[in-house]
Design a protein that fits this description.
- It is built from two helices and no strands.
- With 87 residues, it is mainly alpha-helical.
- It has a domain at 1-32.
- The longest helix is centred in the N-terminal third of the chain and has 29 residues, at 3-31.
- The two termini are 33 Å apart.
């Protein structure tokens, strides 16, 4: 088993754990009758803050996917399978 396959398995397990914990949080939030829920989007400027945080997470996720997907290959194309020298 290569190290890329091992990392993919770990990431998959972490995603399942995060989804399970998020689901548990939603269930606990709905079960607890604590009045109106807090939502950042309802606050003044909350939509902009939510969009900015989403953009940051998207960029960080893209960097992480790139790092895990290429297995540490250099950006110059060395080690990449889809670079054709005759093109």
């Amino acid at each position: 088993m290569s190290s890329n396959q091992a990392r993919g398995g770990i990431v998959g397990v972490l995603i399942v754990i995060c989804l399970a914990l998020a689901g548990a949080g939603v269930v606990f939030d709905l079960a607890a009758d604590a009045g109106p829920p807090f939502w950042i989007g309802s606050a003044r400027g909350g939509g902009a803050a939510l969009g900015a945080v989403s953009a940051v997470f998207a960029v960080l996720g893209a960097y992480a996917a790139n790092a895990f997907g290429r297995g540490g290959a250099k950006a110059s194309g060395e080690g990449s399978k889809d670079v054709r020298p005759d093109a």
